């Protein structure tokens, strides 16, 4: 297994406040890896230390390959044109001006627009293009689809999959759990400056005992009783909702009860715990 990034005992403090408390993790070459956490957890500081934007106080960071960065915002001059920014960054990086990259990100049609005239989504695409100059081995994406419409999000997701298929390593930070679930091979969750979880999406959903909602609609009002394998929660839209950790035993228990009370079932909906709920369960202790 070849590692693209290896972090060992990373420490970063701001005065008396230690934001990163000796974290260690690695990113494999060719994988899509997400770094998650609630506001203040330390994910942005961690990424900035890895990217070289911010100095750190202790530990080691090893990066195997060249990397490019798409930031949430940039300090581009308001009046610089899109093509001028792309040309300037290409020369800074001593790289050939690759207009095919320009076209693949849909920037050709706005190449003569000034930066201040761009929409949020157009700025995000330009930031990505600047981060990809020089064909880097590792790509850092900070909230890559923020401000993009549905079509733009889908196009960028497809672009990220192409990067992966071409052997690129992607490290991203996002608040969009659907995006994480769709794109990522592994993820790490930071909590109070420490790694609270690292693994696959499937491993995350199993980390916390999953709560499954059973929504039952019956012909007659249902007695709001608790059962051994499930607990009554609420009535919503004429459905009685129970939570359980064992869907088969919980559901059978309720159905046996209803059969004995001669109360026919009209509908049953089974709702599994979402990735966002699993994330919050670790990041905030919400259950």
Automatic annotation (TrEMBL):
Pfam family, any one = ABC_tran
Which residue numbers delimit the ABC transporter domain? 5-217
Q: Which UniProt keywords apply?
A: ATP-binding, Nucleotide-binding, Transport
What SMART domains does the annotation carry?
A: AAA (SM00382)
**Known CDD domains for this protein?**
ABC_DR_subfamily_A
Tagged with keyword Transport: yes
Name the InterPro entries for this protein. AAA+_ATPase, ABC_transporter-like_ATP-bd, ABC_transporter_ATP-binding, P-loop_NTPase
| Family, similarity comment | Belongs to the ABC transporter superfamily.
Q: Would you tell me the protein name for this molecule?
A: ABC transporter domain-containing protein
Which organism encodes this protein? Clostridium omnivorum
């Amino acid at each position: 297994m070849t590692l693209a990034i290896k972090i060992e005992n990373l420490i970063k403090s701001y005065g008396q406040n230690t934001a990163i408390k000796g974290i260690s993790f690695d990113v494999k070459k060719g994988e899509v890896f997400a770094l998650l956490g609630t506001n203040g957890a330390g994910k942005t500081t961690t990424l900035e230390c890895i990217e070289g934007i911010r100095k750190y106080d202790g530990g080691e960071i090893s990066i195997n390959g060249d990397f490019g960065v798409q930031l949430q915002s940039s300090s581009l001059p308001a009046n610089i044109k899109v093509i001028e920014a792309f040309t300037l960054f290409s020369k800074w990086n001593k790289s050939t001006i690759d207009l095919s990259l320009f076209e693949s990100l849909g920037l050709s049609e706005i190449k003569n627009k000034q930066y201040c005239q761009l929409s949020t989504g157009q700025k995000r695409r330009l930031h990505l293009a600047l981060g990809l100059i020089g064909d880097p081995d590792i790509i850092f994406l900070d909230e890559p689809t923020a401000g993009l419409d549905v079509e733009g999000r889908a196009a960028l997701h497809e672009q990220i999959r192409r990067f992966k298929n071409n052997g690129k390593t992607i490290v991203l930070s996002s608040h969009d759990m659907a995006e994480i679930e769709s794109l990522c091979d592994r993820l790490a969750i930071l909590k109070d400056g420490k790694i609270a979880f690292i693994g696959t999406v499937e491993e995350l959903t199993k980390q916390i005992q999953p709560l499954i909602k059973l929504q039952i609609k019956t012909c007659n009002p249902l007695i709001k009783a608790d059962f051994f394998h499930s607990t009554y929660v609420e009535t919503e839209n004429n459905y009685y909702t129970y939570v359980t950790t064992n869907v088969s035993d919980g559901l059978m228990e309720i159905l046996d009860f209803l059969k004995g009370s001669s109360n026919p079932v009209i509908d049953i909906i089974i709702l599994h715990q979402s990735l966002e709920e699993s994330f919050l369960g670790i990041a905030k202790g919400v259950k």
